Amino acid sequence: MEVGPTGRYIYSDVDLDQHEGEIIEELKAHSQQPLPDPDHWLQGKPERGIMLTSVEAILNWARRSSLWSVVCFPACCSFEFIATAASRHDISRFGMEIIRASPRQADLMITAGTLTWKMAPSVKRIYDQMAEPKWVIAMGACAISGGIFQASYGVTPGYNHIIPVDVYVPGCPPRPEALLYGINMLQNKIAKAEIIKK
Amino acid sequence: MTLVLSTEKLATKLEQQLPGSIIKSNKDNLLVNSGFLFNLASFLKTAPGLEFDFLSNITAVDYYDYFEVIYQLTSTKHNHSLVLKAQCYGRDNPVLPSLVSLWRGADFQEREIYDLMGIKFEGHPNLKRIVLWEGFQGHPLRRDYLSW
């Protein structure tokens, strides 16, 4: 093998091909039998992999851990909602990073904004289109009571006049931390739900 | 910068064209006899040297005794602007001529004024409520409207 002017070895293509061939031949010679699958730990006693709980707890855990929110952004609270969903506050930590445009694929409505009576039938229709089980978080002063527009001729004084609300998050608008706390409260509420009827 | 036209010179010119059309020429606006409003607006739109081809805005004010509707006209050709005011009386059935046939931009704004102030625009092709819903009682931007 030659040494070049900078002190490095000069490899020829023939040398490289030959070296590669030696590596392949050596690996092939040592790999005639398949390796055993790493499943020896599965051979233990059966009780190692079993946890006893109720069906209700499992169902509630599944439901509260992946709340998919429907788009209901009539006014300015939506920007705090968007900030909550974006990377800094990261709503996906709670299993709900997907904001569905279709109510049929959603089970949570976060009502981010002032509702006018002219808009109210559309919101009620979206709520009715959502599949059971479904929950509602009233986000911000307008969603709770109409806020500063409560006495207005055109504003619905609170979403609870048209749809049932599970959690109220006050603020004008609420900070993302407040909304996340409200989502946590809703998750605690879902955890206590009785879903199996005797 | 858009030039605001001198209303005094313009008022004389308009008064020659349509006698009796200008009630009062204020510093920066013209108070127009509402009976002449359509003809005057039509003249302002087409007259050489004026050519107000763009209706920037319409708004209305409730002064208890009468309603005043304010038109802001702009000429994109000559880059000048003008403010017209017209008054209409009566709280039951205040009426003004519609300017939709001159400027299409008047369509939604006249409907909004009809909706919130209750001023009827004669000649409007589709005069119905735009912000509130059909069946709403009253016109909420009127001073005597009480919502609670």
- How many strands, which pairing sense, and closed or not: the largest β-sheet of chain A? 5 strands, parallel
Measured distance between first and last alpha carbons of chain B: 45 Å
CATH class of the domain at 67-182 in chain A: Alpha Beta
Question: What's the name of the CATH homologous superfamily of the domain at 3-92 in chain B?
Answer: NADH:ubiquinone oxidoreductase Nqo5 subunit
Beta content of chain A comes to: 5-15%
What order do the SSEs of chain B take from the amino end to the carboxyl end, as H and E?
EHEEHEEEEHE
Structure summary, number of beta strands of chain A: 7
Query: Level of helix content of chain B?
Result: 10-25%
Structural class of chain A: alpha/beta
Order of helices and strands of chain A: EEHHEHEEHEHEH
Please state the second-level CATH architecture of the domain at 67-182 in chain A.
Answer: 3-Layer(aba) Sandwich
What does this structure look like?
The complex is a heterodimer of chains A (198) and B (148). Chain A has 198 residues and is of the alpha/beta class. Chain A has a domain at 67-182: Rossmann fold (3-Layer(aba) Sandwich), CATH 3.40.50.12280. Helix content of chain A is 34%, strand content 11%. Chain A has helices spanning 13-29, 55-65, 77-85, 120-129, 141-145, 176-191, and strands at residues 2-3, 9-10, 69-70, 99-100, 108-112, 135-139, 167-169. In chain A, the strands form two sheets. Chain A has a five-stranded parallel sheet with strand order 4-3-5-6-7. The longest helix of chain A is centred in the first third of the chain and has 17 residues, at 13-29. Chain A is elongated and about 90 Å long. The relative contact order of chain A is 0.14. Chain B has 148 residues and is α/β, with parallel strands linked by helices. Chain B has a domain at 3-92: Beta Polymerase, domain 2 (2-Layer Sandwich), CATH 3.30.460. Chain B is built from three helices and eight strands, in the order E-H-E-E-H-E-E-E-E-H-E. Chain B has helices at 7-17, 37-46, 106-117, and strands spanning 3-4, 22-25, 30-32, 54-62, 66-75, 80-89, 95-97, 120-122. In chain B, the strands form two sheets. In chain B, strands 1, 2, 3, 4, 5 and 6 form a six-stranded mixed sheet that branches. In chain B, strand 7 (95-97), helix 3 and strand 8 (120-122) form a beta-alpha-beta unit. Chain B is globular and about 45 Å long. The N and C termini of chain B lie far apart (45 Å). The mean pLDDT of chain B is 89.
